[in-house]
Structures are given as C-alpha cells and as structure tokens.
Design brief:
Elements (H helix, E strand, L loop, with lengths): L3 H12 L3 H8 L3 H9 L8 H15 L3 H12 L23 H21 L37 H8 L3 E7 L3 E7 L5 E5 L4 E6 L3 E6 L5 E5 L2 E2 L10 E6 L1 H6 L1
Antiparallel strand pairs: 1-4, 1-6, 2-3, 2-5, 5-8, 6-7
Helix pairs in contact: 1-3, 4-5
Length: about 250
C-alpha cells in the first residue's frame, strides 16, 4: 500500500466521522469511501473517477489533494517486466537432389499427355448429335375475372401507437429543492452533480436507468416515459439504488 488510504482513514478518525456522516459531507457513497481507505480500487469505475474521489475526499478532510494523488500514482506505476529471449537454434537444411530418372519419367508423362489431347481434339471432326425439339408448353386455363373484395380499414390501437413512438427509457428529473444526485445509465460509469431548485434534467437509456444516490429525496420528482413515479422519500432523506426499467412502467 502506498499510504494514501491510511492517511484518509486517519484524518476521518481524527474528525470522528462515521461512514454515513462522511457520505453526507463528501457526497461519496460509503462503499467507495471504504474502497479509497483500503486502496481497493477495483470496484471504482475508472482512473478518472478514482482521482476525482480522492481529490474530493482529501479536500473535505483538510488534506493536500496533490499529495494524495501523487501517492496514488506511485501505487499504480507499472513495474518493468522481464524480457525472455528464446535460444537460437540452427536448423540444417538438407539439399534435395533431383535424380535424372525422375526427370525422365516426368518428360515421358508430359509427352503421352500431349499426344492424348491431340487425338481427342482433332480439327474437322464432328460429333454426331440427336436433334432435340422441346415439347409444347400447355396453355393456361381460362379464368373468369372476379372483382376484388375490399379489405376492411385497419384501425390502429392507441396503446400500440403510444408504445411504438416510445423508444427505450426517458426519465425527467425535476428538482423542487437543491439536490445532489448520482445516476448510471445501462451499466455505464455513473455521473453526478448538484442541481438547484427549479431545474430539470432528462436522462435517456435503453434498458435501465439507476439513481445510485439521491441526496434529497423529497426535493426530486421523477417521471418515466411520461408517467410520474411515487415520491422517493422525505425532504433531506438520502435514497440509494432506485432502478427504473420497463417493469417499472408496468407497475405505474
């Protein structure tokens, strides 16, 4: 371990913050905080998110973010690999000599082949053939003209029309109060941000939209494909893992 995780844990313990209090202050999920302190970066989305979380966490704890990032960079620097060289082997190539007997046999075979071809394709020789006259095709039977029966007009089903015009999932996030939120779409790395009252954000996905963390559940109204979801919680309440799928639409 490079030491950045120990420094973060020591600073948090010095402030006597629990994991839940740290999440409220830093807006970083508890499992990510534990991963940063244990330097278990495998569960985090990627290097960019890791450095962002380290910088934010260090600032909130009163540590130098640049020093924490430098320790992290030292811990992930690749070590020089060993280069193994394969031993060189000398391969002896044995020269193949062509015997005169083989050459003579090949020459005789080619000569016989040429004579046979010349006998088959003699100029002026005609091949007797049997004249062929194709049989007459049967005439098509006479049919009486039948007036076409008009098909009844197709009346579209309003539910089918509504379903056809909706492709995937579209969620409207309307912020009635200031709210911090972290969202993941179709399993992609999450994005997060703080939104002021009166703003809204549209999120589109193919199969799943996941509200990983909502910092103020009572200050957010969520609609999915035009249908309003029930309230996520009370004002100031932190809610995790609200999953929106096509099954969610059926339950509304």
């Amino acid at each position: 371990m490079a030491g950045e995780g120990q420094m973060l844990r020591a600073a948090r313990n010095e402030k006597k913050w629990s994991y839940m209090e740290t999440e409220e202050t830093t807006k970083i999920r508890v499992r990510y905080i534990q991963a940063l302190e244990e330097e278990d970066y495998g569960i985090l989305p990627g290097t960019t998110y890791i450095k962002g979380y380290l910088r934010t966490y260090a600032k909130q704890l009163g540590l130098n973010p640049d020093e924490i990032i430098a320790l992290y960079n030292d811990s992930i620097s690749p070590e020089a690999g060993l280069v193994l060289e394969a031993p060189q082997r000398l391969v002896k190539v044995r020269s193949l000599g062509v015997r005169p007997v083989i050459l003579g046999c090949m020459a005789v075979f080619v000569l016989v082949l040429v004579i046979a071809i010349a006998n088959v394709y003699q100029p002026g020789k005609k091949v007797a053939g049997t004249p062929y006259s194709p049989p007459a095709l049967p005439s098509a039977p006479k049919t009486e003209a039948v007036a076409p029966v008009p098909s009844p007009p197709v009346v579209p089903n309003p539910e089918n029309v509504a379903a056809a015009t909706q492709d995937g999932l579209t969620s409207q996030l309307v912020f009635l109060q200031p709210c911090w939120i972290e969202v993941s779409v179709d399993g992609q790395p999450p994005f997060q941000g703080t939104f002021t009252a009166g703003t809204n954000k549209e999120v589109k996905g193919t199969s799943k939209i996941e509200l990983l963390t909502v910092g103020n559940a009572g200050g957010l109204t969520v609609t999915l494909n035009g249908k309003t979801l029930p309230s996520l919680g009370k004002s100031g309440q932190v809610v995790h893992n609200v999953i929106l799928t096509t099954d969610t639409l059926k339950s509304l």
